Amino acid sequence: MRVMVGIDGSDASFYALQWTLDNLFNGLISPAPAVVGGEATLLTLVHVHQPIKHYGFAPSAFPAGPGVLAYASTTLVDSVRKSQEQISAGILSRALKMCKDKIKAETLILEGDPTDMICDISEQMNVDLLVVGSRGLGKIKRALLGSVSDYCAHYAKCPTLIVKPLKEASK
């Protein structure tokens, strides 16, 4: 059985991971893949960061105000990329520490739109269960801001479990 948990650094995503560990891997203390129902279980933690957006014809053009483009040096763009990679690694490091005594987990850092990338990678890896957290947005905010969990629930090719935050669960 392959379980994938989407981690974005938010409290909701770490709550979803903790819920997964407590409810799917409860009592399994083994650094090797756990065995649930006679099957080896693998946990994959995936983090997707947005690509650096480019504007105009030049790959290093960025908006600096209304009708104004600024051109960033290659060094600046590389620095931003490196910073994104460090942030992603830090987020997944925290998630791995949570898994340490419960189950061995692998990590994956992707670049792109989180909605598409999570659905695509879960299909490519033949995931049996996709777990994502929910920020608990209302209908209007979800319609305006979008929702990764809502998108995954509709478009992922595998069963998707949306773990709502505690405050939502108690209402």
TrEMBL record:
InterPro entries (UniProt xref): Rossmann-like_a/b/a_fold, Universal_stress_UspA, UspA
Organism domain of life: Eukaryota
Domain UspA, residue spans: 2-164
Database matches in Pfam families: Usp
Keywords: Hydrolase
One example GO MF annotation: hydrolase activity
Alphabetized CDD domains for the sequence: USP_At3g01520-like
The protein, known as: Adenine nucleotide alpha hydrolases-like superfamily protein, putative
Species this protein is from: Theobroma cacao (Cacao)
